[in-house]
Amino acid sequence: MTKGFGGTTTGAEEFERSPRPGVPRDVQASFLLWLVALAAGVAETTVGIINFDPAATEVIFALGIRLGVTTVLIYIIAQVRLGKNWARITLAVLLGGIGTLSLVIDPVSWLIEGNSLSELLEDVDLAFIVFASIRVVHLAAVLTALVFMFRPAANDYFRAAAGYRRARRS
Fold first, then answer.
1. Which long-range contacts (CB under 8 A, 24 or more apart) does 96-103 make?
2. Looking at the domain assignment, is residue 13 inside a domain?
3. For tag attachment on the chain, is the N or C end more exposed, with fewer CB atoms within 10 Å?
4. Which residues 6+ apart lie within 8 Å of 45 measured at CB?
């Protein structure tokens, strides 16, 4: 394991292609799916900026926010792979709960307002198809990552990791 400044792990080893020994497939799958979800979020932002053509300052602001949020989330996702339960709960609340709500609220609101899918299909262009496809991948990755993160093997892994950390402190 790579040691960083002060003897702590750097976390960089978490991005190797093969999982660490002892990381269950469910946790590994969740880890990779969270990264797919983040990439889809970045792609959505990019397509949105290209499609809506905002002013340069708005682009810089949107990309800056997305970069900051993505950086923090990559760190949290890496902590999930290390078996940190706080990171699992944080991802479940932020991306599984609030993030999912943010992905579906606009389409659901649009339908509740009385719009129809046939009306939507009349005005479809390539930008909409690309954006909607990315949104579907994003949503599917989040929901699937969430499920994998709480399967029995994952639960056992997080319990074992917490026990190991408690034993090391004693």
1. 96/142, 96/143, 96/145, 96/146, 99/37, 99/142, 100/139, 100/142, 100/143, 103/135, 103/138, 103/139, 103/142
2. no
3. C
4. 62, 63, 66
Query: Is residue 124 domain-resident?
Result: yes
pLDDT at site 1: 45
Number of separate domains in the chain? 1
- Residue 44 CB neighbour total at 10 angstroms: 19
What is the span of the domain harbouring residue 94?
23-159
How high is the pLDDT of residue 143?
Answer: 97
Determine, yes or no, domain membership for 1. Answer: no
Does 16 fall in a domain? no
Q: Can you list the residues of the chain whose pLDDT is less than 50?
A: 1-7, 14, 16-19
